[in-house]
Write a structure and sequence with these properties.
Number of helices: 25
CATH superfamily of the largest domain: Phosphoenolpyruvate-binding domains
Shape: globular
Radius of gyration: 25 Å
CATH architecture of the largest domain: Alpha-Beta Barrel
Bound molecules: phosphoenolpyruvate, magnesium ion
Distance between the termini: 24 Å
């Protein structure tokens, strides 16, 4: 029996058998096979090449039906490459001669080939090198076993163990018998962790070496509240955790049964609780949990869940469905927040050195106007079916807001010419996620219709701590006085100018932070749907005056330790059960 400590990022306890997933991120380790297994290794590689070819043919056919000839030609080129013996034969030779694993031989030879193309100098060959790298990733993913394939045959509850999980792999997990996951890397507000909460999967990340300590088939307990993974537990511990799991489910059911209660403080201040969603169908969960609408729809998951980029109609259908499911309630749709840990890196020949400071979010969209326009046009078309608000992520310069508004105007004129109806008064707001936007909140408040504070990124950029890096997870703390000072000043500015302001980062769903946020003047909070009942219960136990006095006290502290201890004392007084729930994650 062994207990591995990590960061509990998604609440709940789950028990199941370990299933280890290999990683597909291009960092293939040098490993060898025994000489007697070489022919099996070559056969494995041939099978995966064939699977990759079949997959590409399927994608090409799909895209040809849409009439996209240029994309179809790219897939033809990929097929040509997979049939090219000057690329494929050296892979076989390497396995045969050097007894290396297929993954290593593939990675080496594809890289060599891409380098040769790049050295030819012209832009056309550089583009082809990008295709070669893309293809390499595809072949490697088949060698690793696609997540879904790997999960297909398993019976009974499974706990997935991986070095890292990408957001798209995580999306695939909930379609199988997966009851929890644990990873070596990751942090509380990484997108994989956010997805775990959305999917209701208990999860522990940042375990450093869980992939080494756990063997396939081991019995595991994942405690998402305590942030611990127990490997091969004895019977007594197993029984104790089974009991804890049942109690936790009962608590959740009791909280849910109060979901219909009004969200109002004891002294009568209404607080709007909204849901953060990644897929339109989650709107049902927002409503069931007593949410008043959607405060953040992360549309980029449309890209993460599919092998090909979504068309304007794919976007439109998702937004129309979200509008339908919202029944006229608030629905804030965020434009694509791709980049950093989401999607773009795997499509680059060389990953960005500092992806979180790179071409992400609104920057990525403005640098890829055709892609951006596809989404914005779909949003405008969908707006004819019901009220929406559009929110821009990671805005740093006011020009980014202005440029987007100009694109929306042009698209509106286009739609007018085509006699396509749309809402001419869609509120455009921004997320405040960078210190620059926070410090310039007044300028933004004059040009945007609403502000939403994205504390996940605001903490990362204010404290210069990568939100997904387990090595600095201890430094990532929303209770840091510098972060709190920024939040306070954004809220004050928005209220002064008279526009709506909300908080939609993870702290909005953490009972510990609710009294403080209310004390700072926040009246709208947006969180994972499953967190709404516990937050509502805290709200119903508060009085605004107490919260304001707490905020004043907290404002005088100079360390996050002091802040946290004060917030804990306050929550212990109001709702000790909520404190127990918020301690783990
Ligand atoms: C945030 O940064 O707080 C936020 C809500 O956006 P995301 O987590 O999608 O980056
Ligand atoms: Mg963000």
């Amino acid at each position: 029996m062994e207990a591995i400590k990590g960061i509990g990022v998604s609440s709940g306890i789950a028990i199941g058998r370990a299933l280890k997933l290999s990683e597909v991120d291009g960092r293939v380790q040098f490993r060898t096979v025994e000489a007697k297994n070489v022919s099996t290794e070559i056969a494995r590689m041939d099978r995966c090449l064939q699977e990759a070819k079949d997959q590409i043919v399927r994608m090409r056919n799909k895209i040809t039906l849409r009439g996209d000839d240029s994309a179809a030609r790219i897939f033809d080129f990929h097929l040509e490459l997979l049939g090219d013996s000057t690329l494929i034969q050296p892979i076989r030779d390497d396995i045969q001669r050097e007894c290396v694993i297929a993954e290593y031989a593939v990675a080496e030879n594809f890289k060599k080939f891409a380098d040769q193309l790049r050295k030819m100098g012209s832009e056309m060959f550089v583009q082809k090198a990008i295709d070669v790298i893309d293809l390499e990733r595809r072949v490697l993913s088949h060698l690793a076993g696609r997540t879904t394939d790997r999960l297909a045959g398993v019976k009974g509850p499974v706990v997935v163990i991986a070095h890292e999980l990408t957001p798209s792999q995580t999306v695939e997990l909930h379609r199988a018998h997966v009851v929890a996951f644990a990873t070596d890397g990751g942090g509380l507000t990484g997108h994989t962790s956010i997805l775990a909460r959305a999917l209701g999967l208990p999860a522990v990340v940042g375990c450093t070496k869980v992939t080494i300590d756990v063997e396939d088939g081991d019995t595991l307990i994942v405690d998402g509240d305590g942030g611990v993974v127990i490997v091969r537990p004895d019977d007594a511990l197993l029984a104790r955790y089974q009991l804890l799991a049942r109690e936790g489910q009962q608590r959740q059911r009791a909280l849910r049964s109060d979901a219909g209660q009004p969200s109002i403080t004891r002294d009568g201040m209404p607080i709007t609780l909204l849901g953060n969603i990644e897929f339109p169908d989650e709107i049902d969960a927002v409503m069931e949990n007593g949410g008043a609408g959607v405060g953040l729809y992360r549309t980029e998951f449309l890209y993460l869940a599919s092998e090909v980029a979504p068309t304007e109609d794919d976007h439109y259908e998702s937004y129309r469905r979200a509008i339908e499911l919202s029944h006229g309630r608030q629905l804030i749709i965020r434009t694509l927040d791709l980049g950093a840990d989401k999607y773009t890196q795997v499509h680059l020949v060389e990953a960005e050195r500092n992806p979180f400071l790179g071409l992400r979010s609104i920057r990525f969209c403005l640098a890829n106007p055709e892609m951006f326009k596809t989404q914005l046009r779909a949003l405008l078309r969908a707006s004819a079916h019901g009220p929406i608000k559009i929110m821009l992520p990671l805005v740093t310069h006011v020009m980014e807001l202005r440029q987007t508004k100009m694109i929306l105007n042009d698209l509106g004129e286009e739609l007018d010419e085509e006699n396509i109806p749309f809402d001419r008064n869609i509120p455009i707001g921004i997320m405040v996620e960078t210190p620059a936007a926070a410090l310039m909140a007044r300028v933004f408040a004059n040009e945007a219709r609403f502000l939403s504070i994205g504390t996940n990124d605001l903490v990362q950029y204010t404290l210069a701590v990568d939100r997904g890096n387990e090595r600095v997870a201890g430094l990532y703390n929303a209770a840091n006085p510098a972060v709190l000072m920024l939040i306070k000043s954004i809220v004050r500015t928005a209220r002064h100018v008279g526009i709506d302001v909300s908080v939609c980062g993870e702290i909005a769903g953490q009972p510990l932070f609710i009294p403080l946020l209310l004390g700072m003047g926040v009246r709208t909070l947006s969180m994972s749907p499953g967190q709404i009942p516990a937050v509502k219960r805290v709200v119903r136990g508060l009085e605004i005056e107490q919260c304001e006095s707490l905020a004043r006290r907290v404002g005088s502290f100079d360390s996050d330790r002091q802040v946290l201890s004060c917030l804990r004392d306050e929550l212990r007084r109001i709702d000790p059960e909520a404190l127990a729930g918020s301690e783990g994650g």
